[in-house]
Amino acid sequence: MTITEQPTLDGTVPEAPASDYDTWLAEVWPVFIAAAATGKVFTCYEIASAHKLPDPPNRKAHWGRLMTLLRDEGFIRTANWACSDRPTTHHSGVRTWRGTAAARRAAA
To answer: Which of 54, 61, 97, 102 is the most exposed place for a label (fewest CB within 10 A)?
Structure first.
């Protein structure tokens, strides 16, 4: 028996999560570096949604880990807090981020 993703209410089938963390990270990293290079404030979900990025193998942990890695590498810093646009979070509070000069240099 094959297990498949259940379609969403609009009938579309969600994209399957990446099979391993490193492959997923290599795919999404440049997108977030480019977002940080703009200097605009953003949330993780805004970037992922705008670029239709795939979900990581562990959705509950890996998005946050990505943002921590970007911060630790000096590409982003905490800007403030906002209400999330992610439909499943019921407008809970999330961090907003702003790129650093290092992100602008990395994107150049």
So the answer is: 61
Average of per-residue pLDDT across 3-10:
63
The model carries a pTM of 0.76
Q: Give dist(CA 31, CA 79) in Å, integer.
A: 19
- 39-107: CATH number: 1.10.10
* pLDDT one-digit tens code per residue, 49-75: 999 999 999 888 899 999 999 999 999
**Domains in the chain: boundaries:** 39-107
Q: At what angle do helices 21-37 and 59-72 cross, to 10 degrees?
A: 50
Ramachandran region of residue 46, left (φ > 0), alpha (ψ -120 to 50) or beta?
alpha
